[in-house]
Amino acid sequence: MKSDRDNPFRIAQEQFDRAAALLALPDNVREVLRVPQRELTVRFPVAMDDGSTRMFTGYRVQHNLGRGPTKGGLRYHPSVDIDEVRALAMWMTWKCALVNIPYGGAKGGVVCDPAQLSLQELERLTRRFATEVGIVVGSERDIPAPDVNTNAQIMAWFMDTLSMQQGHTINAVVTGKPVEVGGSLGRNEATGRGVSLMVREWARRHGRRLDQLNVVVQGFGNVGGVAAALLAELGCRVIGVGDASGGYVCRDGLDIAGMRRYAAHHPRRLLAGYSAPGVERIAGDALLETPCDVLVPAAMENQITDRNAARIRAALIVEGANGPTTPLADAILDERGIAVVPDILANAGGVTVSYFEWVQGLQSFFWNEHDVNARLEHIMVDAFNQVCDLAEQRRISLRLAAYLLAVRRVADANIIRGLYP
Ligand code: NAD
Predict the structure, then answer these.
(1) Domains with residue ranges and CATH for the chain
(2) Residue ranges lining ligand 1, Cβ < 6 Å
């Protein structure tokens, strides 16, 4: 159990309360929005390879259905618990509203360590979990997607399970699928691409040259690995990256393409054992404190806290992960003049292209990658400018500005729809 100050749901509620107060939301609307609308806990057996049966616990939380079907990823991790899922679901609501796509927020997860499961066990777990949460998900109700330790293959099993039960293929029931079964071109890279666009737009707004930016990225998976690669392509010098195996730093710039190839061919897609001339191995915690221009936390929650915020030496933090910065750390960073592009904006590229995938699946009409990326860029840049403009106008942080825009939209949708019955 996380302590109260590290509890992501308490943090999510605190962030919401601040925005709700500034927006002067009526109490009855606040009460609706500060808690999830629906929560499902499932406990289910999975047949293991050794002939035993093991019980697993999973969750699906739908935070708010006011703006449309709910949307959010599935996480497979030992630290998954109901409060983490609640927080992630709430953040999804604000994120979808901020980029103005017609969804509410949801999230799900299974308490497990996929590294300890065989591929067959992972498939059986996914198929049984899909069946258990199948009573609340659906292409017009709630649409899952990948998150930490889940991927396109897992989404394909999830889709196949629900399709087999219905007797026909329903590919819009999840996003982040392989392109062979209704996935969208560009979805894999979308979250990292969105992160890289935030850095590019921030540099543009602040008259900084991309080739003079030193970047550090924590997390080298779907979000961090892609963000690092795209930032290197944009001309930034990526001087540090890290994953669950530790940190890797080179002041002259790392060979990100080579490191991604290395991770792809090693257990759990980790960089463990990676070495190259000039590359120094450091502890994961030290990575965050490496002097740089742009720091991209793209791993897990609660990485930048009041314990290390004073030692962060970056001009800009772009939150690839959900909830990497605690409110106490936020206050310290704000005081130190370190800008933070908040998660609900910075990593919204993933859900945006998930939305494109869902639209394409429902219409059975698929776009080329150029169109996907162009539409993504338009939405991300527009949202970034709206947030920056409001932050400048009201002299508030980017996070608070993003919350004001997002919470207002969600509150309006709920108020306009009215109270049923
Ligand atoms: P992933 O499983 O692909 O990668 C996670 C990475 O973080 C791995 O490299 C892992 O080794 C590393 N990691 C785990 N614990 C760590 C630690 N304690 N210190 C350093 N590194 C650690 O997951 P992902 O999809 O890249 O998700 C990362 C974050 O981005 C999560 O917060 C997730 O909710 C968020 N996110 C993901 C998406 C998406 O489209 N996948 C979209 C929006 C937000």
Answers:
(1) 4-181 (3.40.50.10860), 190-346 (3.40.50.720)
(2) 146-149, 191, 218-224, 242-244, 270, 284, 298-300, 320-322, 347, 350
Other beta carbons within 10 angstroms of residue 22's beta carbon come to: 15
Which regions in the chain score pLDDT beneath 50? none
pLDDT of res. 4: 72
Strand locations in 10-123 (E): 38-47, 53-62, 70-77, 104-111
Q: Distance between CA 186 and CA 85 in Å, rounded?
A: 26
Quote the pTM value.
0.97
107 included as an active-site residue: yes
Laid out side by side, the sheet with 142-146 consists of: 38-47, 53-62, 104-111, 70-77, 142-146
pLDDT for the residue 206: 97
- pLDDT (0 to 100) of residue 1: 52
Give the single-character DSSP code of 322: S
Cα–Cα distance for residue pair 8/253, rounded to 1 Å = 34
**Closest CA to ligand 1's atom 43:** 347
Tokens of 315: 């001009």
